[in-house]
């Protein structure tokens, strides 16, 4: 990903005032902010406390997914629990074994909370608060200490962490409350500094089933951002078929920002020398719900023209009905047969990946009973 | 001979016809024709995977490398779809998650199953000789072959190459359960029956690892555990949703050691008893799983495998060798094979789909689960 640092810093600027980093700095908690709309759900902000706790520098964590905190003995179940909470866009508080940069394991009370946009209901960021649990609390009933007290190359080490009874020790209420308080404080700060309004809860109308146009669930977003090609999703059920999602590669190809394209029809890519024939072919295919591929002259934001091999196709969601029209772009300069072959493969492969992503069952499906791990 | 009602599905358009068509893979192999080839390399996978967490951790800024094999597979599949080679559009099939503890995924797929039943072979014998008179994958239509998959010094893709001498093939399943449903047929022309050995399983693990996508899973059904064709093959498809079995609680049953990172655990509180093998070392998993499976085959215990997490997690579900399936379950015509046990249930009838509940699925799956003493025997095989 080009300029990933720029992209990561833009993640905050997009939703909050420029002073947000200073505001967040005032809090002594260990926490991160992650952006589910960027590939691999990376960290876009890390507090000093988080860096101190884990031993990493800011540069080493920004832009990375949190999984670097996991290690060999991290309980898979805990990882799954966090993933489910992210998919279902809800809070989760869980005890998980994490590792510092030096490889030292520590028990972590992790609290995850989504930050919702009040405009379109999307999850803008996830807040992750970490509270390391001291080794005193990790003592087992028989008086043996576990965790940080053991030497790590002992064979016993694994048995201790695998022992189910070891995982069932009680967290104090105080610890849980501290985690809640930290999350609340961070969320409040974000809400205060937000440009367009964010909140720890969805708007009332959303909860009552009124979904704002262009809403894209986190689970869909996470799947779409895995696809490393230029594409857009447009909504054929909304007036003038606006773009509801644009990949990073599309933005890089065309030179626009996300805010400049979401909500607009793709025709802004056309310009003075664009032929009418491909435009008509596109229009006609869309009206019949067909796929088609056209070679069309498009223009970047800086007015620079480029030949676009554009492939469009209807895409169905888990209801089996058409939810979006996907448009996949390949910039073609010289048209050798091999290039055409590769471009074709990229287009169809990207379309396949989009179909897999959109077909998955999104939020709004029946939620599983969440299993608490005390 | 056990008269259990199985509902086979059509995986190839040539499955019904008796005669060998001129267009079939076997004929083409003899006359020679070209296919795309994807070469994977074993070197890459064992060094790239690190011992941190369940996915590889890039040490530099996250330029996430997405797998070319995945793109190749999806593009070829999409191409076949646009050519009308599938019996129906699987993306037009409705799916939903059933409420409850497990989150089973139900799909309404009215086009998948045949109206009449075919009985290809005995279903109470896990090991059976290959019978060239029955349908096998050399008889598929050449259009159903997507590409060859082979090992090389370097990973690479070749658009047009002659068929290799002992090729492994990736074919489409013309009755897909999900988008991208393919069949992986190791050393197709060796005409090996449906039985497992470490090398073939390792191929499947490399295949999964090379696609490098957590939504792409590979399954294996032994004879007697609802395999429909007695010619060695694995199945695979994409589903961008967690399989219930992947989320199940597990508890470790093998001893840890410094030399090996292989963890073997049993499922806790899941309708079907099973074990899961986890390791970053694909070789280790292949050897351990295959050794257990061969033991099961010898004891005539049918089983299913589900390969997840880019090849680093393999579930093994032994099934009851002889079982009475209730009429109610038979009427739904759902075969509890690898996908179903994993938690993805394809239902043929609308009323079954609309009224499907977690209780129904749990009961269905529990029918094939081993009894406690039988499962303990299996655990003893694993841990010895």
UniProtKB/TrEMBL annotation, chain A:
Transmembrane segments: none annotated. PROSITE patterns: PAC (PS50113), PAS (PS50112). It comes from the Eukaryota. GO terms for cellular component: nucleus. Residues 43-89, 243-289 form the PAS domain. GO terms for molecular function: photoreceptor activity. It holds the Pfam family PAS_9. Residues 290-344 form the PAC domain. Keywords: Chromophore, Flavoprotein, FMN, Photoreceptor protein, Receptor, Sensory transduction. InterPro entries: PAC, PAS, PAS-assoc_C, PAS-like_dom_sf. One of its GO terms (biological process) is response to blue light. This is LOV domain-containing protein. It comes from Selaginella moellendorffii (Spikemoss).
């Amino acid at each position: 990903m080009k300029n990933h640092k720029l992209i990561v810093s833009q993640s905050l600027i997009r939703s909050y005032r420029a002073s947000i980093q200073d505001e967040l700095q005032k809090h002594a908690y260990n926490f991160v902010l992650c952006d589910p709309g960027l590939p691999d759900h990376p960290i876009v902000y890390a507090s000093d406390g988080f860096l101190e706790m884990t031993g990493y520098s800011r540069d080493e964590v920004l832009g990375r997914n949190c999984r670097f905190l996991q290690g060999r003995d991290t309980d898979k179940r805990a990882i799954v629990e966090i993933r489910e909470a992210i998919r279902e866009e809800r809070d989760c508080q869980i005890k998980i074994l994490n590792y510092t940069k030096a490889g030292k394991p520590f028990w972590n009370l992790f609290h995850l909370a989504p930050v919702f946009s009040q405009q379109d209901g999307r999850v803008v960021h996830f807040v992750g608060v970490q509270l390391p649990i001291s080794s005193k609390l990790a003592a087992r009933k028989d008086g043996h200490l576990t965790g940080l007290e053991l030497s790590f190359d002992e064979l016993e080490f694994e048995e201790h962490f695998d022992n189910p009874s070891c995982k069932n020790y009680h967290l104090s209420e105080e610890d849980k409350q501290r985690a809640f308080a930290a999350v609340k404080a961070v969320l409040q700060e974000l809400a205060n500094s937000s440009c367009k309004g964010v909140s720890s809860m969805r708007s009332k109308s959303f909860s009552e089933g009124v979904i704002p146009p262009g809403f894209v669930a986190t689970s869909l977003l996470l799947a779409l951002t895995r696809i490393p090609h230029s594409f857009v999703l447009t909504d054929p059920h909304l007036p003038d078929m606006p773009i509801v999602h644009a990949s990073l590669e599309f933005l890089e190809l065309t030179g626009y920002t996300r805010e400049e394209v979401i909500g607009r029809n793709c025709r802004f890519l056309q310009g003075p020398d664009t032929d009418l024939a491909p435009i008509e072919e596109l229009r006609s295919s869309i009206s019949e719900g067909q796929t088609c591929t056209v070679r069309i002259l498009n223009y970047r934001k800086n007015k620079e023209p480029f030949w676009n091999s554009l492939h469009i196709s209807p895409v169905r969601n888990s209801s089996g009905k058409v939810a979006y029209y996907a448009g996949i772009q390949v910039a073609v300069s010289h048209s050798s047969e091999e290039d055409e072959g590769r471009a074709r493969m990229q287009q169809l492969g990207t379309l396949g990946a989009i179909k897999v992503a959109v077909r998955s069952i999104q939020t709004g499906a029946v939620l599983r009973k969440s299993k608490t791990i005390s | 001979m056990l008269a259990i009602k199985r509902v086979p599905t059509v995986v190839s358009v040539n499955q019904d016809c008796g005669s060998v068509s001129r267009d079939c893979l076997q004929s083409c192999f003899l006359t020679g024709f070209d296919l795309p080839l994807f070469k994977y390399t074993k070197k890459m996978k064992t060094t790239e995977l690190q011992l941190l967490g369940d996915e590889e951790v890039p040490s530099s800024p996250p330029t996430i490398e997405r797998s070319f094999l995945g793109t190749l597979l999806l593009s070829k599949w999409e191409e076949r779809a646009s050519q009308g080679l599938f019996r129906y559009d699987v993306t037009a099939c409705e799916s939903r998650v059933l409420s409850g503890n497990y989150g089973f995924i139900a799909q309404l797929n009215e086009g998948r199953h045949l109206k009449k039943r075919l009985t290809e072979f005995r279903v109470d014998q896990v090991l059976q000789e290959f019978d060239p008179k029955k349908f096998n994958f050399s008889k598929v239509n050449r259009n159903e072959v997507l590409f060859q998959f082979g090992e090389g010094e370097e990973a690479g893709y070749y658009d047009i190459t002659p068929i290799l001498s002992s090729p492994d093939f990736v074919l489409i399943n013309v009755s897909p359960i999900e988008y991208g449903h393919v069949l992986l047929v190791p050393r197709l022309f060796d005409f090996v029956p449906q039985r497992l050995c470490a090398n073939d399983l390792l191929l499947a693990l490399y295949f999964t690892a090379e696609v490098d996508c957590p939504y792409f899973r590979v399954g294996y059904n032994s004879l007697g555990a609802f395999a429909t064709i007695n010619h060695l093959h694995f199945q695979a498809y994409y589903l961008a949703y967690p399989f219930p079995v992947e989320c199940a609680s597990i508890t470790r049953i093998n001893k840890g050691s410094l030399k090996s990172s292989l963890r073997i655990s049993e499922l806790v509180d899941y309708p079907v008893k099973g074990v899961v093998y986890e390791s970053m070392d694909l070789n280790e998993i292949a050897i351990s799983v295959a050794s257990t499976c061969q033991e099961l085959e010898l004891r005539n215990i049918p089983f299913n495998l589900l390969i997840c997490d880019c090849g680093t997690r393999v579930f093994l579900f032994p099934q009851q060798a002889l079982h009475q399936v209730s009429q109610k379950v038979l009427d739904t015509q759902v075969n509890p094979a690898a996908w179903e046990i994993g938690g993805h249930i394809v239902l043929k009838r609308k009323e079954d789909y609309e009224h499907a509940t977690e209780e129904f699925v749990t009961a269905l799956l529990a029918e094939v689960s081993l009894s406690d003493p039988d499962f303990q025997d299996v655990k003893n095989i694993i841990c010895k």
